[in-house]
Write a structure and sequence with these properties.
The protein is an alpha/beta fold. Helices cover 45% and strands 13% of the residues. Helix 11 packs across helix 18, helix 15 (411-431) crosses helix 22 and helix 16 crosses helix 23 (659-672). The longest helix is centred in the first third of the chain and has 26 residues, at 129-154.
Length: 720
């Protein structure tokens, strides 16, 4: 406590005493010179200071020294060293100089230290106005000048324009001449130990073209002049000093630098700076390597969650696979729009516990808004219990197996978890009057060549049957490509291989994939829940009354109404990325040479792996939606009987554990979708009088309605 009181009484550090002494001497010097300049006689070449004013200066100069020391200390101008002086320090000096001058004038007027010896003056001698003005200006000049000079010497600026780069220094071109670029420049100039020499700025603002910022010239923009500037300056490194730079700008800079073998780094955001654990590193050392997400060549899809997810406010939302990479991000984003409750469903205890604790402890979601449920989506009775207890109005089905290689080795579990479980959850949701159901699908479901892709295609088929059987529920599916940062993504695999020193394995140098970030995927999923047709009016009644029988929720509005297809939405992910180029970019952005330091090994394609993923099947048509960057895959719905027969065959193969037969069957079924319909559609286009593609036998319409309304067994037993 004693130490705190002493610091408050004397706000100066012992290391600042030399600074105080220099400032006091400069104030005295300014006071002395002010008299000399005021009474200087330019013609005679020497001072004509009258005796009375010379005596006034001699008697008051010690007052000025003592008073200035006290004022400077109380003004707290010594809380920072001169080399770090900034605008606030100069403002403090200005206030201190004003007080010093005013106190000097008042003290001389009140104390009257000098009286005239002649009778020409009626009273005491005061400070002339010219001396007061000169004293103020000289004080301000000296005190601010010594600080500016100290900072310039510390940053080695005085000779910067006359010396070249020191031996071993690396030339740096800075992209962005705004606040971030100036911050980087000052750090580089101040800390010569970094071994960096700035050679110029690049900025897209035409008003900055040709300007010099802290002595460094803005040489051009990144759109048209980047190649020329890189050729003229030949930098050893490029720093992107625009934390919020769009992906297209980053991609353009990295692409041009990669052609010339120039490494690129980027300035972190303020959030990333605050996240550093040590906090001791300088700004230049905290500049991170360009992430792969920065160079995918397209702008990230940004949506206003509060607007596109407004339909979730006050609703009971159930998320399956809540502990996974997509499911957990769904829970985080949904919590922001304040639903009535979020039901977290997962069969992995640890993942479920982690997301629950994160939402409560880090996201501050009230525990009353969360319900963590351990359940397996393959167990129909357990899912029915969960739906009956929590009564969700919106369901996001994100639970799925997605590792292609593992699913090829375990086709029975792949189909059981991805296809049959989806059918179970979709049917239970329809039976209990859920308003909206969204399936998280994948682009691998398009013309599938693997068990994983075929199982997700079957999941989409299950939604079509559920949509026809339960028109009170709006069923949507969402397709997207590889999600960066998710488990099993190629990006973390490449990072681990690079960290081990290689090799980085690529199955085929021609292979391409679509990529997107986890936030993009989740935004698409949430947005798709509000797209398409709104649920029929009786669906809301079904949701409010919560029927437990199929008849209330599944009754068709009209016997002759066509079956309603589940919508499939697709994100416009730009151009696909070549995997081998992605591997090379990650190696180069790690500061290594893919041709020398890390080897890229072509290991050959795995069974069923396609060179290029597609977003639409041949029997689907791309249609725009009201949402930007989101397309609808329009297609003819499958008949309910066809889907039921399909799942009956698959269910029996799953129960029998026939892996080979199951793999063949799911591939056959998913590949056969739409094949017979193509020529029929062409014939119909040529001849409008052509007969229908298929004719159903005459049956009693009542029996058809009853059959579609009756609950079908979803999990087949050997006795059924």
């Amino acid at each position: 406590m004693r130490r705190r009181i002493r610091a408050a009484a004397l706000p100066i550090h012992r290391h600042s005493i030399p600074h105080l002494a220099v400032d006091g001497a400069l104030v005295v010097l300014a006071y002395y010179i002010a008299f000399e300049l005021r009474f200087d006689n330019g013609a005679s070449g020497h001072s004509q200071l009258p005796h009375d004013y010379e005596l006034l200066r001699e008697r008051t100069i010690w007052w000025v020294l003592a008073g200035s020391l006290v004022v400077l200390v109380l003004a707290r101008v010594y809380q920072r060293r001169w080399r770090y002086s900034g605008q606030r320090d100069y403002e403090a000096v200005l206030r201190a100089v004003l007080v010093i001058v005013l106190l000097t004038v008042v003290a001389i007027a009140v104390l009257r230290p000098v009286h005239p010896f002649s009778g020409h003056h009626a009273g005491a001698i005061g400070l002339p106005n010219g001396v007061v003005a000169l004293f103020f200006l000289l004080c301000l000049l000296f005190l601010c000048g010594v600080r500016m000079g100290s900072r310039a010497v510390y940053e080695r600026r005085p000779l910067a324009a006359f010396r070249g780069g020191r031996k071993g220094e690396r030339s740096v071109l800075i992209v962005g001449a705004g606040d971030g670029g100036r911050l980087v420049l000052r750090e580089i100039v101040r800390n010569r130990g970094l071994g960096l020499q700035p050679v110029g700025f690049l900025d897209d603002d035409p008003r900055k073209r040709g300007l010099r910022i802290d002595g460094v010239k803005v040489r051009g923009d990144t759109e048209t002049e980047l190649p020329r500037v890189l050729g003229e300056t030949e930098p050893d490194e490029v720093i992107i000093a625009i934390p919020s730079a769009p992906g297209s700008t980053r991609a353009r800079v990295v692409r041009e630098c990669r052609l010339r073998g120039i490494p690129v780094r980027t300035l972190p955001t303020v959030f990333e700076l605050l996240q550093t654990s040590s906090g001791a590193g300088t700004l230049a050392r905290q500049m991170r390597e360009v992430r792969v997400e920065d160079v995918l060549g397209r702008e990230p899809v940004q949506m206003q969650l509060e607007r596109v997810g407004a339909y979730l406010a006050g609703e009971t939302v159930l998320v399956t696979g809540a502990g996974g990479s997509i499911g957990s991000e769904l829970c985080r984003q949904i919590a922001r729009v304040e639903p009535h409750r979020i039901v977290l469903v997962d069969h992995a205890e640890d993942n479920l516990f982690q997301i629950q604790r994160e939402l409560e402890d880090e996201r501050h979601v009230p525990s009353s808004m969360l319900a963590a449920v351990l359940a397996d989506c393959k167990e129909e009775e357990r899912i029915r219990e969960v739906f009956t207890e929590h009564r969700p109005t919106v369901v996001f089905h994100a639970a799925a197996y997605k590792h292609v290689g593992l699913m090829e080795s375990n086709p029975v579990e792949a189909v059981r978890n991805n296809a049959l479980a989806t059918r179970v959850v979709a049917h239970v949701a329809g039976e209990l009057g859920v308003g909206r159901f969204v399936l998280v699908s994948t682009d691998k479901a398009v013309q599938p060549a693997t068990v994983m892709g075929a199982s997700k295609a079957l999941a989409e088929f299950a939604l079509e049957a559920a949509s026809a059987r339960f028109p009170g529920t709006r069923y949507n599916a969402v397709r997207f490509g590889n999600v960066l940062g998710s488990s099993g993504s190629v990006v973390p695999i490449f990072r681990r291989q690079i960290a081990r020193g290689g090799p980085v394995t690529v199955t085929d140098e021609r292979m391409t994939r679509y990529f997107m970030t986890i936030p993009e995927a989740v935004q698409l999923i949430i947005r798709s829940g509000s797209l398409g047709e709104e649920p029929a009016p009786f669906a809301h009644a079904a949701s409010s009354h919560r029927p437990t029988s199929v008849g209330a929720a599944g009754k068709r509005p009209a016997d002759d109404a066509p079956p309603k297809a589940a919508d499939v939405f697709v994100l416009d992910m730009g151009e696909p990325v070549r995997i081998v180029e992605l591997a090379r970019a990650m190696i180069e952005l790690s500061g290594l040479d893919p041709d020398r330091d890390i080897e890229i090994e072509i290991v050959g394609r795995r069974g069923g792996e396609k060179l290029h993923e597609e977003l639409f099947n041949p029997y689907e048509r791309s249609r725009p939606t009201v949402a930007e960057k989101i397309l609808r895959a329009e297609r003819e719905p499958l008949a309910v009987e066809t889907v039921e027969a399909m799942f009956a065959e698959i269910g029996l193969l799953v129960l029998e554990g026939d892996a080979a037969g199951l793999a063949a069957k799911v591939s056959e079924l998913s590949a056969a979708r739409g094949a017979p319909e193509e020529p029929a559609r062409a014939d119909l286009a040529e001849d409008s009088s052509a007969p229908e593609v298929s004719e159903l036998p005459d049956v009693d319409e009542t029996s058809v309605v009853e059959e579609r309304s009756a609950p079908a067994p979803l999990i087949h037993s050997r006795d059924s």
